[in-house]
Amino acid sequence: MKYCYFLLLCLFSLVGNSQSLKKAEGSYAFRGVNVVDVQSGSIVSNTNVLVSNGKIVKVGRNKQKLPKGTVVIDAQGKFVMPGMYDMHAHFPNVDGEPFPVDDYLFLNLSRGITSLRIMRGAPVVLDWKQKIINKDVIGPTLYVGSPALVVDEKLQKQDLRTLLAGYQRDGYDFIKYLGGNNQGVYDSINHIAKEIGIKVAGHGPPMGLEAAVNAGQSSVEHIEPFIGLYLYDSTRYAAAMNKFVEKRLWSCPDLYWYLIYGYQIPKQKLLASPGIEYVSKELVARWEKELYGIDSAALKRKYDSYSFRINAYKKLLAYKDKQGVNLLVSPGDGVFIIPGYSYFEEMKLFAQCGMSNANILRACTYNAAQYFDDDNLGKIEANQNADIVLLDANPLLDITNVTKISGVMVRGQWFSKKEIDEKLSAIKKKYNN
């Protein structure tokens, strides 16, 4: 996946585009705006939100004395909500798709995604994380997982405490578990991680969902662990999910990924995916070849297999929501998954499963902040970090209104719709000459 063409694009676009969007934090006042309370699923109407130096300073209807130089944004009739989190991202040119990095970051940001949980880290990703913190690069905040742990013979010979503590010391935000059929080592990873104060997230272990719940793995990715136990023994599944809720564990299904790789979306619809104009023609062609380079019989088998699992999981997702499972949102990563744009496809799937708009918005914002034990994000209220999305319409009434973006603020840096559109136009022009 590491093509010189894409790496060169990445380097050129970083120098030519990211720097042009750098801007200092300042003071901003959103006047007459409607605040989406994602915790209660309600609206605080016609109020004012004051931001200064990267923080929300005040939310209220009373007239506020504005700091000198405050940029006043007339937000009458508009809605503000917290910035969203993509909770299962893979970093480009590391183990993700070969997007130029600044395009990847901006496409996410342009769709209101102000934080990314990077599921497999590397030193180069930590470097990008620091560049963003230092404001050398514009992009969502990165929460970076460790290099993936696979319980194999090599790992079993290592001192796990030293390994995990080293990843924590290096600046990784959580431990990424990928697989390996040794329950003793798996349990030790989770036990040591708890003792040193770092989370474990990743695939369910081969031993199954019950093993993940008993070990207290903080976040279980994908649908297989849930479907596997449910189809094997629904009574044991129900008991495991009760413990899942009691232990405050988290689930990130990446359902849209399964629709793509299970051929549930017609080819022509994929080729016209929202945001595909911001992807190079070479990459789209590679995606098409990778996905459809199989014979019709194999495609039919995969379609049938995925269709059965997806439809079963959709029923489980609605029940998980009602049961109070902490859900996280991401379309996953892979072919035809377009940064920022495919995120909304996952939101639509949650809605199709019967989740309320309020619960979907909570999963995208407050739930994710709580996963990281961060009380400074995920809400629009005083003392919160200023990650904000300004919308033209109420997302509680219609989840599609999340795409009607009038501006995005990340860590107190404001990008108007005009600025976003100009940058998107430049990306589109680069790939459509």
TrEMBL record:
Segments passing through the bilayer: none
Domain Amidohydrolase-related: 79-414
Gene Ontology MF annotations: hydrolase activity, acting on carbon-nitrogen (but not peptide) bonds
Domain of life: Bacteria
Xref: Pfam families: Amidohydro_1
This protein's UniProt keywords: Signal
Record keyword Signal present: yes
Region forming the signal peptide: 1-18
Protein name: Imidazolonepropionase
The organism of origin for this protein: Hymenobacter psychrophilus
